[in-house]
Design a protein that fits this description.
0% strand, elongated
Length: 97
């Protein structure tokens, strides 16, 4: 039986069962990224409406980086157009050839 620290290190390599792994999975969720972007837009509008200062440029910079991440996600996401019947057929063809 392994020591607890060796099992912990093995699990941390894969982030299995730990909150950091769940957090890393949520960060790439487009709904969460969209909420973060809406938060930046709200912060920018608040700064414009109440107290226009130099911090607004940081909001704009961070918001533009989040927007870039959304655009890259939409550009490179894989389409889910594969049907189960096509997958079975592809497996049969690969096995025959």
């Amino acid at each position: 039986m392994q020591d607890w620290h060796l099992r912990y290190a093995a699990n941390m390599r894969n982030y299995e069962g730990y909150s950091i792994g769940k957090l890393l999975g949520l960060i790439n969720d487009p709904a969460i990224i969209g909420l973060i972007f809406i938060g930046y837009i709200a912060g920018i509008l608040n700064k414009i409406a109440t107290n226009f200062d130099h911090v607004i440029w940081l909001y704009c910079l961070n918001g533009s980086m989040v927007l870039t991440e959304i655009i890259l996600y939409l550009k490179y996401k894989k389409p889910d157009s594969c049907k189960q019947s096509n997958l079975i057929l592809k497996r049969v063809i690969k096995c025959i050839s």
